[in-house]
Amino acid sequence: MEFALVLNPAGPEPEKAALAKADLLYIGDEFCEARLPTAARLRQAARRHPGKRLALLTPLLTQAGLGAAEAALSERLCEEVIVNDIGLLRRLAAVSGRRPRLTLGRVLVQSLQHSLRSPFFLAFLKRTAVNAFEADSAESCGYLPPGPDYRCHLYAPYIYLAHSRYCRLAGGFCSECRAACAGRAQPLESAVVKRMFVRGNSYLRVCPEETARASLAAGPRRVTRLVVNA
Amino acid sequence: MKIVAGVVSPREAEYFSEFAEELYFGVPQVENHRKWYANQQFASTAEVKTAVRAAHAMGRRILLAANEIYRPAAYAGVLASIRRLLDLGVDGLIVRDLFLLDHFTSREPGPKLVLSSTAGCFNAEAARFYARFRLARIVVPQHVLPAEFSPVLRQVRGPAYEIFYFPDCFCPNVDGVCPLHDINKTESPRNCTAPHALAGRSWRMPKPPWAARLEMIRDYYRLGVRHIKMPRDGTFEEKRSVLRSVLRISEALRAGVSRKEFLRRASEEA
After folding, report:
1. pLDDT tens digit sequence for A122-162
2. Which of A13, A215, A217, B1 is most buried, judging by how many CB atoms fall within 10 Å of its CB?
3. CATH number of the domain that residue B48 is part of
4. In chain A, residues 77-136 whose CB comes closer than 8 Å to chain B
5. B168-210, pLDDT tens digit by residue?
6. Nearest Cβ partner of B143 from A112, A165, A191?
């Protein structure tokens, strides 16, 4: 099982032990395109973490965000892209020749749901050689195509619930915002959802790593990576 | 603006056919984005038949909201239900499911297809991904600003585009991926508008203020978007009030008034 760590420039510095253990570092954001890294920031990360493999984590994208994601990938510092936008998936899947490995992220999995197992999409996956998905709950794992041909990356401790492009901290839609908004997740007391948290523009539930592993270890999906998003 | 009105009964279909270019509705046998609200579905096939007749008598089209995503095991049942409704004269589908989009493009072409806002089409590449399905229209997601969406309108010209009447319908979270409306599985979940507590204070999930949502309509109109959707939610009286607002802003948009004057006219009591 691989171990990946989501680097959060606005959050606390990851523990050295966790960093040392990580096979792969995720740089970017699943929920906000204003937090997409530039190529310069990726270079900096590559220098700071020599020997570590890098993956670009991307959100749902506007047209400008699509351009920013492509610019970040221009120097080929990332061996993998976590894709959460169907447009970015279409664009990168069409690249002939060498391209980063593509993984469908949690937001796109939540968006396409059972369509991931439709004949149309299975043919798309085969044609484009995309075979990895990210999930974080029994429900989201249930959307994924089963079988040994597909790999599942599992998140802990935070399960994705929802996100807004109307940022609570910026007080508006904020494509230009670079504020350090996504520090620690704060508990949100709710009569609706137990153990809900808010971080930046996202709403999360908590699922400890042990619970995630235990609930999915016996499942039919091939879980090949644990992604820690603390 | 060309009005697309959500209706929940033959009476509403008859009334709104006078003003709307197109109607849409849901039925319980085909899950849709209001599936927990029994009062937002037609109660019977007989009601659908009457509504179709009323719409067609006025020269209007009427579409089925089939805008959820269906399990592969349910495909046969969903298709059978949809075919029965198409046989009654329903003109098309509002859809996001890739199986349905593919099926009604390549296997049984004919029904008019409108891509639901819940598909999350935020950029031109996404629009191109979906445009292969012979879409008549794409409903613009609520969480993309007109300036952000203008490249899509310029670059992908096959389908027409539609926006919601934002003052009445604007989700706090990105629609299509937010499961909050599904969590309680009740007719009135209000999960995303309920007060929560953050750091000991009452707190609600934020969304743009009313005036900003109105301005988005004006900006989309100026970019060429001509379809506006009135949601199914609300009583008949509430929907008539929304209709009056939509007609008033449509008139202001046609007149090309300034932003300030547009907001003034739009703010008049319905």
Report:
1. 999 999 999 999 998 878 888 999 888 899 999 988 999 99
2. B1
3. 3.20.20.380
4. 85-91, 107, 110-115, 117-121
5. 889 999 988 888 877 666 555 567 878 889 999 999 999 999 9
6. A165
- For domain A2-159+207-228, the CATH superfamily is Aldolase class I (3.20.20.70)
Closest-CA residue to B26 (of B62, B77, B1): B62
By the 10 Å C-beta count (0-12 exposed, 13-18 middle, 19+ buried), B125 is classed as buried
CB contact under 8 A, A190 and B208: no
Would you say the C-alpha torsion A64, A65, A68, A73 has a positive or negative sign?
negative
Sequence ranges of the domains in chain A: 2-159+207-228
At residue B38, the 3 state secondary structure works out as helix
* Residue matched to tokens 């179709």: B52
Count the domains in chain B: 1
In a domain, B192, yes or no: no
Q: Is B180 a member of any domain?
A: no
Domain housing B101: 2-173+205-232
In a domain, B66, yes or no: yes
What six digits make up the tokens of B12? 């509403």
> Residue B143 domain-assigned?
yes
Instruction: Give how far A137 is from chain B: nearest CA, Å.
Output: 13
Gap between the Cα atoms of B253 and A77, Å rounded = 48
Chain B interface mutation, best of A83, A120, A137, highest count of B Cβ atoms under 10 Å? A120
Query: In 3D, which of A98, A130, A100 has the Cα closest to residue A112?
Result: A130
Residues 6+ apart with CB under 8 A from B38: B28, B187
Q: How many CB atoms lie within 10 A of CB B138?
A: 26
Say how many CB pairs under 8 Å bridge A and B: 149
What are the φ and ψ backbone dihedral angles of A215, each rounded to 5 degrees?
A: -75, -25
Q: What does DSSP say about strands A158-163 and A24-28: parallel, antiparallel, or unpaired?
A: unpaired
Euclidean distance between CA atoms B155 and A205, whole angstroms: 38
Span A170-223, pLDDT tens digits = 888 876 666 666 577 899 998 878 889 998 899 999 876 666 666 666 566 788
